[in-house]
Specification:
This protein is of the alpha+beta class. It has 3 helices and 6 strands; from the N terminus they run αββαββαββ. It has a 4-stranded antiparallel β-sheet. It has a two-stranded antiparallel sheet with strand order 1-2. A hairpin with a 2-residue loop joins β3 and β4. The chain is elongated and about 135 Å long.
Length: 186
């Protein structure tokens, strides 16, 4: 019986020891979890030395004013225009007079150059200031487009030319002929 009693006594001590150890681990886990929750929930306040604080700035009251405020931007990058415009080829010919001096300020509508009034453009019914928009259904955006549109198939036949004349679109019938080479001067 003594062996049986000592085995039971040993088992009882082991059970009590396991229970105490489990209880201690549980209490330690609860205390550790609570401490973690408290420290992570409250942000740490950083101590700022008195010498590192920003200098005080005086506040001044001023009545409201209406006016323009200049805006200056400095930086590296690309610039893109808000508005663009297409410059179209105008009637060309022999220039007989230049009506401005280099560096002179000019305004819209000022005469810049006088084209020979007897030239091929005048003979075709075009006027100074006419802007060529389309030739025989082909859009013209510059002198190169106009030259390409006047290919050999369009020479010596009547064509329709759309021009802007004093802000209004007009159609002019023209009959282009092949230009004879100019005589060389020696």
């Amino acid at each position: 019986m003594s062996t049986f009693a000592s085995n039971q006594n040993r088992e009882g001590v082991l059970i009590r020891l396991r229970t105490v150890l489990a209880s201690l681990l549980l209490v330690a886990a609860v205390i550790g979890g609570g401490a973690y929750a408290l420290t992570s929930a409250q942000p740490k306040a950083q101590a700022v030395p008195a010498s590192a604080s920003a200098p005080s700035v005086p506040v001044v009251a001023e009545p409201v004013k209406s006016g323009e405020v200049p805006i200056y931007l400095r930086g590296i990058g690309t610039v893109q225009a808000y508005n663009t415009d297409t410059i179209r080829a105008q009637v060309q010919g022999q220039i007989t007079q230049i009506a401005f001096k280099e560096g002179q300020t000019v305004h819209a509508g000022d005469l810049l150059a006088q084209i020979d009034p007897e030239g091929p453009a005048a003979q075709a019914g075009l006027l100074p200031g006419d802007v060529v928009v389309r030739l025989d259904g082909v859009e013209v955006n510059g002198v190169d487009d106009l030259i390409r549109a006047l290919d050999r198939d369009r020479i010596d036949r009547t064509l329709e030319m759309d021009v802007l004349r004093m802000g209004r679109l007009r159609t002019v019938d023209i009959h282009p002929i092949e230009r004879k080479p100019a005589a060389r001067r020696n």
